[in-house]
Structures are given as structure tokens and as C-alpha cells.
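User: Here's a structure from my thesis project, written as C-alpha cells. My advisor, Dr. K., wants to see whether a designed sequence matches the one we expressed. Can you design one independently, without my sequence as a hint?
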């Protein structure tokens, strides 16, 4: 007889809630930026080993895999993965809280500390369910805790490290500070945009600030190019196609009275369609060539790191919806009408295996929203409990050996057949 594992799962997560909040706050106080997550990795590895997991630390001491081999089965099982991200952002934390970042100029402004805590909570809860013989059937589970999500490198590094070995489905969450606590956002198909980092290098001829006619001023060219991108690019794009181009960094010059030789612009190009992406980059090159010609400068366009869009597998939608409904009820399920123009390197895993990303409402009721990537960003920590309960349910239901139909007759087909 299968015991009421769902209710017991919720009780386990609630008992662990204080510990999960402590974990999240420790990470929030001690954030590490992309590429430097070694202490974060060590801390999470120890936490998971104490919870009964075997961990394997990734390349350069950053990122880790945590495996749960169910003791109920003597045979290899289909493996499901839950993914979290570890890196903070180079933003100064300005909120007044006991857990304010102590690292100057670095903070968790995108919820990665909460993602880590809730995945750790889901893994720990499943381990406890098995120890107390509440797990209804064997589960083969892997936690992927990746570095460098913000630079679109961490997922690729972890895949190369073997993160998807024997994994047949992968799931993750993202904090949504514009969605109230107790709500989750679900969307099948395209969830996020393709994102390409672009660098425009403008090379001219420097000189004295008093004699600009003797120079080919790259700063003046940069001003024209930014204006051309923001004004002209929308006129070159079909109005029904979503395109967002943003310049986020300008570098050039050392002195107030010297025209420099070179200026660099860095930004992102975000699109929902690969064909539109290619067209947009071609238009950007045309604008760069035109500005270079009229300003007597050379403008070079270089593509940096980027990520494709997240595509939530249609076949997993009903499973995710069922699990979310058990936690937040029908009234807490929000259908996402449109994709986000944000990006997520979770998409790299989805190029290899089917998966799904869920948006977890983290906005405390009766409080002002604190948007992602801002100095004031914070969450209602009850989102950790909600996310842990949903992900743990997904892992267990997905592992049902009979692939039980939840709502859709085609839902629980063996992965090998889809």
C-alpha cells in the first residue's frame, strides 16, 4: 500500500524550512560572482553530504553534482535532474536587512541563492522520505548546482563535466518578483528569448579635445551608433517580431581633454525567433558600417557569450501543472501568455534532454516589488518552501514506474519513446 507521501513530503519541507532559509541567507550574505563560486560550491557540497547525498565537485572547484541512488532498486533507473545556479551579480546590495550582502559590489540580485536552497530542500526531502519508507517507488535523482549562469557559461561547463549522464528529464525554477507569493507561472513552449552578447569596437584617430577636426572621434561615433541602434533598428524589424537591443556598457577615454583612439560598446540582442535573430544581427552590422563610414572610424561587431531560448517541453506540461496545483491550488496557477525577453542558460540543458522551467512568485503581499537585477532585490522566503515542494513532487511523479497518466493520455510515455 502506498502511504500518503504527498502530505508527508509537505511536512518534511516545513520542518526543514528554517534550515533552508538559513542556507539561502548564508549564500545571500556571502555571494560570489560568476566564475568565482568556489566557497559557495564547498558550502553546498557539505550541506548536501550531511543530508545523505554523494557529491562531485565540478571543474576548477566550481559547481557540483549531487546524486541520490534509491536503495529500493537494484537496477539502474531513469534519472531525473533538478538544476540550481550559484552565482551572484556585480551589484551593490542596498536593502536594509540582516542578511544584506557583506561582499562589496556583489549580491544575489536574481534569486540564485533561493534556487539553490529550494533544490537542496527538494533533494533533502526526498532522501528523508525514503529513509522513513514514505517514498512510493524508487527514484534516481541528480541535483545540478551550476556556476556562471549570468555569463552563459556554467551550463555548458557542467554538461561537459557529465551533468546530463543518464539524465532523461531536467527541471528548474526561477524567482518571479512581480508575481505574488503563492502563485506560479507556467508556459509550455518558448519561455525565454535567445540572447546574444555583442561588442562594438569603434577605432578612430585620437587627439586634442580643442581640435576635433584633426581626429576621427570614436566617442562621437559611439553616440551616433547608439542612437541609430535605438531609433533605426525598430524601423528595420517587422513590428510583429520581438527584438530588444540594449547597450549596457560604454568604455573609452582616460582624460577630459583628450579624444581617445578607441571606444567599446557592450550589450545584448534578444529575440524569440532564430531567423529574426540572424536578421537583427545583420541589420546591426549594417548600422555599424554606415556609422563608421560617415564618421571616418572603423566599427567591428563581435559576438560574445549567449544562450538560446528556454523551450518548455509540451509533454511535461501536465505533469508540472499537476504538481504545482497540489502545492498552490488552482487559484495559484498563472498561465504565462507571452515569453519573457530575459534569457537563461538552462536552455543549453534543454538542447540535450526535455525539461521545464517554472516561475515561482516571490513578491511578498502588501510590499513593493523589487525587480530582478536591482540593488533592492529580495524575496518572500516562503517561495523556497513552495519551490521545494513542487520540484520534489515532480521528481517523484516522473519516476513512477508505471508512468501513471495524470491528466493527458499521452503524458507519461517512456522518455525513450518521445
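Assistant: Designed independently from the structure alone:
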Amino acid at each position: 500500500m502506498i502511504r500518503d507521501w504527498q502530505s508527508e513530503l509537505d511536512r518534511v519541507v516545513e520542518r526543514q524550512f528554517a534550515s533552508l532559509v538559513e542556507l539561502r541567507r548564508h549564500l545571500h550574505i556571502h555571494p560570489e560572482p560568476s566564475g568565482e563560486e568556489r566557497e559557495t560550491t564547498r558550502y553546498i557540497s557539505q550541506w548536501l553530504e550531511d543530508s545523505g547525498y554523494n557529491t562531485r565537485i565540478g571543474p576548477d572547484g566550481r559547481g557540483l553534482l549531487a546524486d541520490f541512488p534509491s536503495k529500493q532498486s537494484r537496477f539502474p533507473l531513469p534519472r531525473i535532474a533538478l538544476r540550481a545556479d550559484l552565482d551572484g551579480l556585480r551589484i551593490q546590495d542596498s536593502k536594509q536587512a540582516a542578511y544584506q550582502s557583506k561582499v562589496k559590489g556583489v549580491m544575489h540580485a536574481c534569486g540564485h541563492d533561493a534556487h539553490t536552497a529550494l533544490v537542496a530542500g527538494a533533494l533533502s526531502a526526498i532522501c528523508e522520505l525514503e529513509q522513513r519508507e514514505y517514498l512510493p517507488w524508487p527514484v534516481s535523482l541528480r541535483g545540478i548546482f551550476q556556476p556562471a549562469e549570468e555569463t552563459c557559461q556554467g551550463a555548458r561547463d557542467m554538461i561537459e563535466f557529465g551533468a546530463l549522464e543518464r539524465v532523461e528529464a531536467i527541471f528548474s525554477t526561477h524567482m518571479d518578483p512581480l508575481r505574488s507569493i503563492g502563485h506560479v507561472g507556467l508556459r509550455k513552449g518558448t519561455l525565454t528569448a535567445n540572447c546574444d552578447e555583442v561588442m562594438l569596437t569603434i577605432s578612430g584617430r585620437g587627439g586634442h579635445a580643442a581640435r576635433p577636426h584633426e581626429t576621427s572621434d570614436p566617442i562621437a561615433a559611439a553616440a551616433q551608433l547608439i542612437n541609430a541602434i535605438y531609433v533605426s533598428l525598430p524601423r528595420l524589424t517587422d513590428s510583429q517580431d520581438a527584438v530588444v537591443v540594449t547597450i549596457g556598457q560604454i568604455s573609452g577615454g582616460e582624460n577630459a581633454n583628450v579624444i581617445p583612439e578607441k571606444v567599446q560598446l557592450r550589450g545584448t540582442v534578444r529575440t524569440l525567433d532564430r531567423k529574426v535573430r540572424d536578421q537583427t544581427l545583420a541589420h546591426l552590422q549594417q548600422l555599424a558600417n554606415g556609422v563608421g563610414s560617415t564618421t571616418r572610424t572603423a566599427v567591428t561587431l563581435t559576438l560574445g557569450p549567449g544562450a538560446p531560448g528556454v523551450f518548455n517541453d509540451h509533454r511535461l506540461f501536465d505533469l508540472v501543472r499537476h504538481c504545482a496545483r497540489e502545492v498552490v491550488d488552482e487559484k495559484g496557477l498563472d498561465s504565462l501568455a507571452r515569453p519573457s525577453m530575459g534569457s537563461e542558460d538552462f536552455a543549453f540543458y534543454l538542447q540535450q534532454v526535455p525539461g521545464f522551467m517554472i516561475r515561482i512568485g516571490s513578491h511578498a503581499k502588501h510590499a513593493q516589488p523589487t525587480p530582478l537585477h536591482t540593488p533592492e532585490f529580495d524575496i518572500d522566503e516562503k517561495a523556497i518552501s513552495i519551490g521545494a515542494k513542487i520540484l520534489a513532487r515532480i521528481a517523484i511523479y516522473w519516476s513512477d514506474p508505471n508512468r501513471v497518466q495524470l491528466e493527458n493520455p499521452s503524458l507519461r510515455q517512456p522518455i525513450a519513446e518521445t
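When you compare it with your expressed construct, this may help: The radius of gyration is 24 Å.
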